[in-house]
Specification:
Length: 258
């Protein structure tokens, strides 16, 4: 089985790139299953039900989220009824939606996708390390193919979680920083990992935002209304091969000009 993970989709440039390119990319790479992080699809912060449906229609099998999950209030009831759009599992116990999804792969079999939020510099209800073992056990009761989207700020926390889960999941894929790291690898126990898969969106920017606006806020400390940039749009992510036992024989970073 070949699994494609597309990193944080940012604003309308990122969404348009997914809609235009994902079907062909799936065919060209022989992808059986696709996970898309939709954390920033709505103008660079959050996701709406309409945009979630568009990403699913474009070829995403499961959509994951992150720290902006509640930026669009209309998403809460949508999450409560969705089996394929998930939010971090370590948010409040009463929060709508799920942090774990199961969906069929094109070539047969099923893939479990788990979503977690990092503790360092972010604010989940509980540490990801407190719940991840139970989450993975639930996933492995149904399928050996398990992908974890770890939406976190700190490199150390992402590397630590990947090492903790090595040999128990297919892949631990870091998201959130929007800058693709050069460490796509397979760990000794057979788990694929990358510290950050990057960003699907405008790279002639400050992590997706028009550079002048981001710089103005940094220089002045004053509130600035951010807008997604438009230039140098590309799809970034990672391609993971998954064996019958759920281990990953190969993991490669992906970068495609839109």
């Amino acid at each position: 089985m070949r699994i494609l993970f597309l990193a944080d989709v940012f604003g309308s440039p990122g969404r348009r790139a997914v809609e235009a390119r994902l079907p062909a990319v799936r065919a060209e790479l022989g992808v059986d299953f696709c996970v898309v992080n939709g954390e920033n699809a709505a103008d660079g912060a959050g996701l709406t039900p309409k945009l979630a449906d568009k990403l699913l229609a474009a070829g995403a099998d499961v959509i994951t989220l992150g720290n902006h999950v509640w930026r669009r209030k209309e998403l809460a009831p949508y999450l409560a009824g969705s089996a394929r759009v998930i939010r971090p599992a370590n948010l409040g116990r009463e929060a709508p939606g799920s942090g774990l999804a199961f969906a069929p792969a094109a070539g047969g079999g099923e893939v479990a996708v788990a979503n977690l939020l990092g503790s360092l510099f972010l604010a989940p209800a509980v540490s990801p390390f407190e719940i991840v073992d139970d989450l993975v056990e639930r996933a492995r009761q149904r399928t050996p193919a398990v992908v974890v989207d770890f939406h976190a700020e700190a490199t150390s926390e992402k590397v630590a979680l990947a090492r903790w889960l090595d040999g128990r999941v297919t892949a631990v894929i870091g998201t959130h920083t929007h800058v693709q790291t050069a460490d796509a690898r397979v760990l000794p126990g057979g788990t694929a990992a990358i510290t950050d898969a990057g960003m699907t969106g405008p790279h002639d920017s400050v992590i997706g935002v028009e550079a002048e606006l981001a710089i103005r806020r940094m220089r002045t400390g004053m509130p600035v209304q951010f807008r997604p940039a438009e230039g140098e749009v590309r799809l970034e992510g990672v391609v993971v091969d998954c064996g019958a036992d759920g281990s990953a024989p190969a993991c490669e970073a992906l970068r495609i000009q839109a």
